[in-house]
Specification:
With 112 residues, the protein is mainly alpha-helical. The protein has five helices and no strands. The protein has a domain at 9-85. It has helices at 9-25, 30-42, 49-74, 87-91, 101-111. Helix 1 runs antiparallel to helix 2 (30-42) and helix 1 (9-25) packs across helix 3 (49-74). The N and C termini lie far apart (49 Å).
C-alpha cells in the first residue's frame, strides 16, 4: 500500500470538515462518511497514525463544542420555535446550490 497523506493538524482538520460538509451539502449518508474516513485512514502511514489520531480527536472535540454552542444559542433566538408547516410547503423546499468558481465563470459567460 502506498501512504501519501499528510498528518498536519490543518490537513486533518480540512479532512474532517470536508466529511461534515459532505453530510450537510452533498447528501452523503453516515455510512458513506464512515467508508471515506476508513479509506483516508488507510492512506496514513502506520508510524504517523498516533499523531493523526491525536489531531483527529482534538478536532472532533472542538467541532462538538462548536455544535453544542450553536444548539444552545438557538434556544436564545427570537421566533426560532416550531412553526406549523404544511407538507406541501416542505416539499417545495430545495437545497441551496453550491456556488463554485467554475459555476461563477459559466454564469458570467452567459451574462455577457
Amino acid at each position: 500500500m502506498r501512504y501519501v497523506v499528510s498528518v498536519s493538524y490543518q490537513a486533518v482538520k480540512s479532512r474532517v470538515y470536508r466529511l461534515i460538509d459532505s453530510l450537510a451539502e452533498e447528501g452523503k449518508t453516515t455510512n458513506d462518511v464512515k467508508d471515506s474516513l476508513k479509506q483516508w485512514w488507510n492512506t496514513i502511514h502506520p508510524s504517523d497514525r498516533p499523531v493523526a489520531r491525536k489531531y483527529l480527536i482534538a478536532i472532533i472535540a472542538e467541532s462538538n463544542s462548536g455544535i453544542n454552542a450553536i444548539r444552545e444559542g438557538i434556544a436564545t433566538l427570537d421566533d426560532f420555535g416550531p412553526h406549523p408547516t404544511s407538507p406541501f410547503a416542505l416539499s417545495r423546499l430545495h437545497p441551496l446550490k453550491l456556488i463554485t468558481p467554475a459555476s461563477q465563470s459559466r454564469s458570467a459567460q452567459f451574462r455577457s
